[in-house]
C-alpha cells in the first residue's frame, strides 16, 4: 500500500556507513600495513595504502590492487548497510570517505594503466555517488 505523500519518484535514501574501526588506528599513527592486517575489511585501511603509493609514485598496478581491494570491501559494507547498487553515498558523512577514496584511486589507477572503460565507469560511479567527492578527488582529472 502506498503512503499518502510518499514521493514515488524519489531516489534511494543516502547510504551512511558506520564508523570504520581502522580510522582510530590510522589516526593514532599506526603503520597502514599493520592496520590493513588488523582490519582487512576496512576500505579506509586500503585507501591508506593506496594513497601514499600514489604519492610515492609506486607501480600503478600496486595502486590499482590496493584500491580494488578497498573498493570491493566497500561494496560488501555498502550492501550490508542498505545500499541497493545505486544512490547517494555522501562525502559529507566521514565514514563514507574510505569507499569514495578507494573508488577515486581505482579510477585514477585504471586510467594510468590504460584501462579506459574502468576509468570511465569508476569516475562516473564516483560522480553519481557523491558529486562532492568527485569534485574533491577527481574533478581536475576529468
Quick take:
With 142 residues, the chain is mostly helical. It has one domain (32-137).
**Rounded radius of gyration (Å):** 16 Å
Q: Tell me the total number of β-strands.
A: 0
How many domains, as an integer? Answer: 1
Helix content: 55-70%
Point out poorly predicted stretches: none
- Measured by DSSP, the beta-strand proportion falls in under 5%
Cα(first) to Cα(last) distance is 44 Å
**Mean pLDDT over the full residue set:** 92
| Biggest sheet descriptor | none
Pairing-aware structural class of the strands and helices? mainly alpha
Overall shape: globular
Number of helices: 7
Which sequence of SSEs, written as H and E, runs from N to C?
HHHHHHH
Characterization of this structure:
This protein has 142 residues and is mainly alpha-helical. The chain has one domain (32-137). The chain is 59% helix and 0% strand. It has helices at residues 22-27, 32-38, 43-55, 60-80, 97-112, 116-129, 131-137. The chain is globular. The termini are far apart.
